[in-house]
Amino acid sequence: MIIIPPEQLNQDTLDALIEEFVTRDGTDYGVEEVVLARKVEQVRDQLKQKRVLIVFDPASEQANILTLEQYQSLSDG
């Protein structure tokens, strides 16, 4: 997997990727419902803090957002 720095993506592409990530089926945000704009902002903050990463998988030709821990476990395996 290749890490893609968010600043290398077109703003529209980054927005679409984050929105797709936060609206996926099965995504659990806890007891309180959070509006889409807030979820997107939370992911943006996590990207800035490098707590989540944008990765591209050349085999599947798909981009995804992973936590740092998820990325490390995939890289180690």
Structural overview:
Belongs to the UPF0270 family. With about 80 residues, this protein is of the alpha+beta class. The protein has one domain (about 1-75): Orthogonal Bundle (Arc Repressor Mutant, subunit A). Helices cover about 45% and strands about 20% of the residues. Strands 1-2-3 form a three-stranded antiparallel beta sheet. Helix 1 (about 10-20) crosses helix 2. The radius of gyration is 13 Å and the shape is globular. The protein starts with a strand and ends with a helix. About 10% of the residues are buried. The mean pLDDT is about 90.
Summarize the structure.
44% of the residues lie in helices and 18% in strands.
Secondary structure layout plus pairing:
Layout: E1 2-3, H1 11-22, H2 36-48, E2 52-57, E3 62-67, H3 68-76
Helix pairs in contact: 1-2
What is the H level of CATH, i.e. the homologous superfamily? YehU-like
Helical content band: 40-55%
The main pleated sheet reads as: 3 strands, antiparallel
Give the neighbour order of strands across the main sheet. 1-2-3
Low-confidence stretches: none
If classified by CATH, what would the architecture be? Orthogonal Bundle
Q: How are helices and strands ordered from N to C?
A: EHHEEH
- What is the number of helices? 3
If you average the pLDDT, what whole number results? 88
How many domains in all?
1
Say what the CATH topology is: Arc Repressor Mutant, subunit A
Q: How much of the polypeptide forms β-strand, as a percent range?
A: 15-25%
Protein name: YheU family protein
Family: Belongs to the UPF0270 family.
Organism: Simiduia agarivorans (strain DSM 21679 / JCM 13881 / BCRC 17597 / SA1)
InterPro entries: UPF0270 (IPR010648), YehU-like_sf (IPR036685)
